[in-house]
Design goal:
Length: 134
């Protein structure tokens, strides 16, 4: 199963050793999940990582970043995408382009109208929602 992780999930996984975002990384190998993201999400996460302190930076280097498969950001879609958060359109488009099974995000502000729903068949969930059903 291919899980596309938004930068909010990457930061939460680095910042907390016990939250659902970190559990994704711990369970991925055993469950056979591929953890995907884009260079766009990596840049955003690395820009904000210092705000979380040295524990998060260490977790990022040792646990989070090595587990990810990073793809170039896709900004082309062969159909219209109406999503009010312009900055997050590349996230949705990249997940669709990679044919991810789920897009996981904690960004409730920008994804509020999509959480628990789908975009062109791509389910958008929080890590907690995903883990509670898998």
């Amino acid at each position: 199963m291919k899980l596309f992780l938004d930068s909010s999930v990457l930061l939460a996984a680095a910042g907390s050793s016990s939250g659902a975002s970190r559990v994704l990384f711990l369970a991925a190998k055993d469950e056979g999940w591929s953890l995907l993201t884009s260079d766009y999400c990596i840049q955003e996460a690395e820009h904000n990582l210092p705000k979380l302190g040295p524990f998060a930076s260490r977790a990022w280097r040792r646990t989070i970043r090595p587990t990810l498969t990073v793809h170039d950001t896709s900004v082309v879609l062969d159909r219209p995408l109406v999503h009010r958060a312009v900055k997050d359109r590349p996230v949705v488009i990249s997940a669709l382009g990679l044919r991810a099974d789920f897009l996981l995000t904690l960004d409730r502000d920008d994804f509020q109208d999509l959480l628990g729903d789908t975009v062109y068949g791509l389910p958008i969930r929080t890590p907690g929602q995903f883990l509670s059903r898998h």
